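PROTOCOL LOG
Step 1. Enter all chains and additional molecules of the complex.
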Amino acid sequence: MTLAAERPTTESTTKVMTMAAALTDALDLALERDDKVVMYGEDVGVMGGVFRITTGLQGKHGKARIFDTPLTEEGIIGTAVGMCAVGYKPVVELQFGGFMYAGLDQIISHVSRYRYRSRGRWNTPMVIRFPYGGGLNLLEQHHDSPEAYLTHTPGIKVVIPSSAYDAKGLMLAAIEDPDPVVFFENIKLYRSLKEEVPTGYYTVPLGKARKVLEGDDVTIITWGAMVQTSLEAAKAAQQAGIGIDLLDLRTVSPLDLDAILESVEKTGRVVIVHEAGLTSGFGGEIAALIAEHALFSLEAPIVRVAHFDTMHSAFNPINHFSRPEPTHVADAIKKVLSS
Amino acid sequence: MTLAAERPTTESTTKVMTMAAALTDALDLALERDDKVVMYGEDVGVMGGVFRITTGLQGKHGKARIFDTPLTEEGIIGTAVGMCAVGYKPVVELQFGGFMYAGLDQIISHVSRYRYRSRGRWNTPMVIRFPYGGGLNLLEQHHDSPEAYLTHTPGIKVVIPSSAYDAKGLMLAAIEDPDPVVFFENIKLYRSLKEEVPTGYYTVPLGKARKVLEGDDVTIITWGAMVQTSLEAAKAAQQAGIGIDLLDLRTVSPLDLDAILESVEKTGRVVIVHEAGLTSGFGGEIAALIAEHALFSLEAPIVRVAHFDTMHSAFNPINHFSRPEPTHVADAIKKVLSS
Amino acid sequence: MPELYAPEMFQILAPDGTVNKPELVPDMETVEKLYRQMVRVRFFDDRLASLAKQNKMGTYALFGGQEASQVGSAMALKPGDYIAPMYRSTGACIAFGWEPRLAIMYWRGHPEGWRIPDHLNMLPIIIDIGAQFPHAAGVAMGLKMQGKPNVAMSWIGEGGTSQGDFHAGVNWAAATDSPAVFIIENNGWAISVPRAVQSKVDYLMRRADGYGIPGYLVDGNDVLAVHHIASKAVEDARAGKGASLIEQMTYRIRPHTTGDDPKAYRTEDEANDYITNKAPIDRVRKFMTDQKVWDEDREAALKLEVETEFAASLEAADNAPTPDPRALLEYAMVNPAPHLLRQREILEQRIKAVEHA
Amino acid sequence: MPELYAPEMFQILAPDGTVNKPELVPDMETVEKLYRQMVRVRFFDDRLASLAKQNKMGTYALFGGQEASQVGSAMALKPGDYIAPMYRSTGACIAFGWEPRLAIMYWRGHPEGWRIPDHLNMLPIIIDIGAQFPHAAGVAMGLKMQGKPNVAMSWIGEGGTSQGDFHAGVNWAAATDSPAVFIIENNGWAISVPRAVQSKVDYLMRRADGYGIPGYLVDGNDVLAVHHIASKAVEDARAGKGASLIEQMTYRIRPHTTGDDPKAYRTEDEANDYITNKAPIDRVRKFMTDQKVWDEDREAALKLEVETEFAASLEAADNAPTPDPRALLEYAMVNPAPHLLRQREILEQRIKAVEHA
Ligand SMILES: Cc1ncc(C[n+]2csc(CCOP(=O)(O)OP(=O)(O)O)c2C)c(N)n1
Ligand SMILES: Cc1ncc(C[n+]2csc(CCOP(=O)(O)OP(=O)(O)O)c2C)c(N)n1
Ligand SMILES: [Mg+2]
Ligand SMILES: [Mg+2]
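Step 2. Run joint prediction.
Step 3. Record the structure below.
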């Protein structure tokens, strides 16, 4: 687990960046550093992506390094498998997490298995990146949070940053990583937060959670945009004298179980927050691991706060009754403290 | 929860059937009873399916009711959505659970959402059935157990029978059900077990677990072929004086949480067994629900027995080190009793 | 290998309003119907574009410029037929009978806009590109099995033709001889990606040959041509001749959605050229005026009519009751599973908390 | 619409061993190489079929009858080229350089058979139909980007042409002008489903037109024809002319896999007809004999050679050490995540328990 404070100090220059800018910066550095890195997908080239994360990169690095492709997720992911076989490190973009399903077969059956199936002859060190998450009133499927489909798929890593600093460092780590990584970029966080980010190359290790708040009473485990949501509730709780250990997992696979157990052993009370639907969401796996490895530390039932078990609806005026909000997390904190 | 004993007695005639025969019987009755039921898929027509579950049905009911189609899972499932819109109840077969991924996009994005998205105007009361599970040394992907991809997908029901009697009754219930149902048929169980099955029409309700063994010390929660695997271990334990409550979930969605909690409150010790990979498997969700609803009944950490987090390998000579075996369940029983 | 035949782009009405194939011009009543519908849906699109600028819409996929393509095809259908629309098909949906009030509410994310009326054989609008084609194939197969004289029609963008579902759907309907009409609305762009990136072939309707069905290349800005070919495909389908694939060459003059800025990828000249030279509405008006069946008075009356209708639709949409949050858990299942019932309780608590706040 | 052209089935050697296109017969060394390879892989298939009957194999997908189709295409490749095989491509894989010993072990589920040798540009055998085509397209795109004079070749059954991945893969390679050769091995059947169910089109290679690439219809039982066309497609790809689609008409004379019984769906006459009239090996032998470059002695020597090779391969496979269960958790990740390390511990316990039992 890395505390926010433990950030590299070797970097002299930093710049205030949004997460979007930090990601652009990371992709730019990766293209510069490793000529095996190529980027492609729908609209990533000329336009720089619908969220403009690859803006300017084609102009700078050329069409051979970053380019637009036919509109097919199974094609984008399937060809990336082949590109790996001739030595590339494709960093492909899907336009939204909700369109990953059209390429999910290639992820489950091939990206995840190619190395195992060929016993090391063929690797798939690609990164599949996409915007995901709710809160912007876009169209249906533009708000899905499909991480649990991936955590159940062996052989891949799943990264979901919550800050500009982490986004850049995790992206560079993901591109370096020899295993395939699916990289979630929260659409609400792209431009809502800014922080100081080193301008140079650095990595944040995959598999290490970040402690956002330190406290003794309740552990909140979360990732992505829900870190902000939980933070709001946690700060209010802290003002009311409740100590919150807020863990931002940063990567849900590999999972930093040590960090989770350490915190749970201290607080004995756990709230898990995620944007995806409740049932069989990744929160279930976390709760199961706690019930296996730290059962007797628990002083209260584990509470999960998650989207209802429906599609992430496009009923803009009322979605906040379903998607986790700070008030829902506050209710969960109350609940976990009341037993 | 239904005890095995509580079976319908109105039926005078029964016959000894394998699960395969019971399923054929159910499909035959459904075709006879409801002319909106149509069946299609790869090889289901002339040949009667690779496991011969639809054998004889085309001869009896005609090509208009059961027929072979182009080889495309996205097509089979996607067209079934359209067939529902004109009033049919398609009961489609995928050749193996591991080929469901090629049609998963249609399941996640459409089968599961069509009703919600149209606010009741369009329903998808289809059944998607397929063989699944390990142990027969077939090819890669022929042994996958993909239920957790579906339990995380809202709006669908997931049925996984473990006996001939249940298979028939659950299939008829699934076909009657107005919600979409994915029906798992274990390839090892197709012909390995026989029992008395009523020859007439009956249903087994979706969402009700079956108590296979009754005992006070340990609860084993499982489904599909793992019921047999667990039963072997449980019987040995019982002989050693350990009382086992063995729950066969029969449907993992809806989940019979009441039956689970009732048992856990009694035993305080839980083993969950499934054939799918461990991480984010449906066992995680069950453990999470127990940690939420019956935490203080637990006297020992919850133990999950599952396939390793790799593809279900085709390394025939050694797969049994990974796929749950009675000895693994026995180890888990020991473990859960030792704390 | 023998040479490929060169498909000709089917056109009845040239951009300047002159007639190429006089024998194929329908009766003037039909022409006027098509014209009125184009004006009506285009006005809808214009108004939604400006409502979006005022932040009074959610994200909306504009179809302006494609009104001939959408109206001409949808109006080839009859009661009992089905449509499987995509996000850009709002014009086709309205021409098919979707109330503008509901369309406005749909694009605002109001649950009552998402409710598809019982009488309307319109499948849900599909956002994930391609999926609608297997649905349409399934509907068509079902209609055939029932012996009904009806068809399913669906639309896809030229970008969408690269998707696996495009192939699975067209091939299925072809192989099963099902009454489906598949329309490629080639508007030149898939957001920022030009047509040429999608495929090496010159015309996407060439794919029809590979499925063993008729393929048509049509001037998608000529509503008479679109209507003629769509009607032919529909009638063939009704007559048991199976599926067809039509490519309608048109253009999206607007941003991809209300959130897009086309300056990032194309010149304004391109859109202006279209508006000046290929505008689908203008050419029909010119033709009708030449034929003396249309004049400024009629035009003014039509304008008033569509304005009035839209104003009433908008007012009704604006006045729709604030949605009940309980809609979030409706229709999740017919027989809700226990976990949904537990979530209903949580929802009730949240509703109560807000009411008491 | 203009008439479709009628593709002619390309053939060099007629079933009776007579030559149609003498100018296209390659030098006799090449003919002999192709012949020897066909005999070799067919013997492999025959032996695996009988080993399976003795329960000495796992499920195995037989390719007997398709030896010309597989050998003729795979032998058009050179070092540095890649193949993306499917489950029925074992003949192509062996012709490409896969050791028969490894192939036997692969089909027995021995982990060492699954290990693809470092020198062999053979992608993993794909079981889920269609997925190999996007992989091949990706390899081809990468080779082009690297400026390498190499190609990717992949095979699919005629049933597989209905899959979305077929479309996504061929269109991608076509659109990006990548050096890929896509081969449809049309063996008439997808398990029990006849060709006609898959599509309404007469020849699946017609789809090439819809992707803007060359399409070829070839007698897949004529190894000279297959080799000629595959070589042309390969050389065009090397020369920067992009992708091609070839349909090779052949026949699977055996069950679908060792677990299948074709009596459930087709007559024995059909297979017998093939064996009598279209057998790919016989016609080359007849031709070589007519040309006086082959005789019974050579045939006997070849038979001995392939028998000897196979016997050694089988013996080596039989003698392979029992696999170490630790293989189950190898290669799951390069840097195993903690949950995999926990599972390694469990595996060690299980291994210990068995050793102590
Ligand atoms: C499966 C899927 N992938 C990606 C997207 C994102 N997306 C929305 S519109 C669009 C371009 C579509 O172009 P085209 O098919 O030509 O239709 P048009 O928008 O021009 O009508 C893309 C890539 C999507 N909606 N669905
Ligand atoms: C995606 C997928 N769906 C279904 C299957 C099951 N299956 C195995 S072989 C086969 C028929 C394939 O026919 P074809 O493509 O013609 O190839 P052939 O076996 O004749 O070589 C089917 C349906 C599969 N392997 N993969
Ligand atoms: Mg377009
Ligand atoms: Mg075949």
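Step 4. Note key features.
Chain A has two domains: 2-198, 210-338.
Confidence is low (pLDDT under 50) at residues 1-5 of chain A.
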